[in-house]
Amino acid sequence: TLAATAVPESAMAHNTAATAQPITRPAEVSGTISSGMGEDDWYNFTLASAGVFTVLLNGPAAPSNIDLFLTDDAGTTQLASSTSASSRDAVANTAGNATYKIRVSPPASGTVSYTLLIQ
Fold this sequence. Notes:
single chain, 5-stranded mixed sheet, 54% strand
């Protein structure tokens, strides 16, 4: 069973690696993303010590598709990415203490809602 604190998506801009919304794990973020804005949603979290983390994305059903990327603090895809044809993506890794960022990319068209679980 995964338990997490509900976290609303910030109303402040978090569409670049530099403006990523900070998240304290475990968290369940409810967000929306739009193709019309041409931007990604970014979140960041810090591992205080080496350990395992999991990021789950539950997005819209086909044909809409959003993707999940896990990056280092600079925003460079580092550990894993998931670009399946589904909007249900997951990444997990054992990593050292550092700050990591999550990028959710928008669908080809429209506005969709998603849930992001960070454990």
